[in-house]
Amino acid sequence: MLRRVVALIVALAGSVVIVFATASIASADCVADPVTGEVHCEEGEGGNNGGGNGNTGGSSTCKYDGKEIPCTGPGGSVWSSKYACWIGERGPDAMVPPDGQTKEDGWWHVCYFPPPGSSWEYMWIEAGEVGIDPVVLAERAIASMDLDPIEIGIVPESGANRAGLVGLPVWMWVDSPTEDTFGPITRSASEGSVSVSATASVSNIVWNMGDGTKVTCTGKGTPYADHYGKQPSPTCGHRYAKMSSDQPDGAYQVTATSHWVVEWTGGGQSGTIEFDLTTDPLPIRIGEAQVLTQ
Predict the structure, then answer these.
(1) pTM for the complete prediction?
(2) Which of 40, 44, 83 is nearest to 64 (CA)?
(3) Residue span of the signal peptide, if any (predicted)?
(4) Which of 23, 33, 135 is nearest to 78 (CA)?
(5) Hey, CA dihedral for 22, 25, 31, 35, is it positive or negative?
């Protein structure tokens, strides 16, 4: 099958029309040399999609030759494992199908090839092979999960009549975890013949303790119980070195940022999307023990 069409000569009404392979390039991951047409790609950083109280943007990568590449290429083109290129815009109507093919069987599309030796060319793409980007379906599946930040479990507790003491252990944990606050949770999304399944889980939680300290904990943490007394948490804890009286409202503002990792597969592709969700600040008051003398 003919794969490379640099210049297609079509005889129309006794005249010769030369259709050159041209394409628009618009992508943060891939750029084309305006003279040579070579496409140079770098793995993207991922965008911000917003949502909840955190950043639900992320990056998504596909596999090629054992390496990770962006699933979306120049001009919004979509990576195809079958054709080993990003399938882009449709070729001009003046182009003709290869021998034995008709317009109902498919059409010429710009294919952008990954590095090394990045380039693009027109390739015959069979009907039904050009559709929605599976990454878009993965994002739809994530949206249907309706994920939320965790519920903070912490001792000392928050409240006007509650306070901890300098130097005593602070315990942090995920209170009443559910699939939509901690995972794992699986959802799918489909359009046409393309279906994508995505599974999301929290990989770690970063606790901002409000005193300039951040504590990264894996797992849900250990809920505090009275019988633990003054023991430190075995899984996720902190100690404040000074009182919170000089803080706004006299309290440290504690937040928990859960880092979500979503593994998705479908449409002949697979990838990973990562994002964060952060709780609203929770005020925690810390004082000092007073020694009474007579």
Answers:
(1) 0.63
(2) 83
(3) 1-28
(4) 135
(5) positive
